[in-house]
């Protein structure tokens, strides 16, 4: 099925306009939602978790790295957290050690 050009153009422009129309406040609210939901989801695995949130995420997902002490240990651990933008459900990845997450400046 072929769609008429004006309909296709409208769909493309409508999507672009929506992205441009997103205000700084909306992105801040989105980042706060990702942080809150990811911290809550990681609460069973980490003591005093902290989150670093990708301010925009990907096209479909909010993204964060949640770090804290693994429950019942003195070992720092991180988890990747993914929030589905549409359903706002959260998934937490497996435990990553501080060594795995560390940025290696000289390779």
Automatic annotation (TrEMBL):
Residues 1-21 form the signal peptide. It comes from the Bacteria. Keywords: Signal. This is HdeA/HdeB family protein.
